[in-house]
Amino acid sequence: MNRSIAGLYAVTPDEADTAVLIAQARACLVGGARLLQYRNKTAPSTLRLEQARALRALCSEHAVPFIVNDDVDVALAVDADGVHLGRDDGSPAAARRRLGPHKLLGVSCYGELDRAVSAVADGADHVAFGSFFASSVKPGAVRVPVGLLSTARRRLTVPIVAIGGITLENARELLAAGAHSIAVISALFRAPDIAGAAAKFQALFEKKAV
Fold it and tell me: What's the whole-model pTM score?
């Protein structure tokens, strides 16, 4: 299992049909996504657990880290590789205590560098900033200047994830500014060819490394 936070980070949409969700997620992984996060803000708890178990098994097949959004209980129940916490999902320090030292812990920091510094001190091993562009998933999200990535890269020693309205057209700007990873929902899961879109996103990282 490669536990590094780099490359394309696929984040699932709200999808009630587990079979559809698994098919879409599989296409992301076949296309080259390096991480997968289960995010479903509308599912009841029983469905969340069912979907998380299925996605966890899928990620294990592809040797890709599986992250659960918001819910430490679900993450522990399915033995996920880690958790991602937002502003209202509890403290990183409490999550780290429950997860132990070896699970991944990501924290959303929006446009707040000080929040990122604090999260790392509390046990986060990667942080996310955004929304950098207009997002259909979070249309009311505050926009964050791309330059924050460069500042964060100089100040932080952990991997940095960029999120929010990311497309193939604007992703290069985020990578050039210092993002180690880009988290994508709509431009992946709404693509006519999900695997093809994933491959194109991941290719941006390969080109950057050359």
Answer: 0.94
- The amino acid that residue 43 corresponds to is A
What's the average pLDDT block by block, 10 residues per block, for the chain (210 residues)? 82 97 98 97 95 98 97 97 93 97 97 97 97 82 92 96 96 97 97 98 80
Structural domains present in the chain: 7-209 (3.20.20.70)
List residues with catalytic annotation.
39, 108, 138
209 Cα distance to chain centroid:
21
3-state secondary structure the chain: CCCCCCEEEEECCCCCCHHHHHHHHHHHHHHCCCEEEECCCCCCHHHHHHHHHHHHHHHHHHCCCEEEECCHHHHHHCCCCEEEECCCCCCHHHHHHHHCCCCEEEEECCCCHHHHHHHHHCCCCEEEECCCCCCCCCCCCCCCCCHHHHHHHHHCCCCEEEECCCCCCCHHHHHHHCCCEEEECHHHHCCCCHHHHHHHHHHHHHHHHC
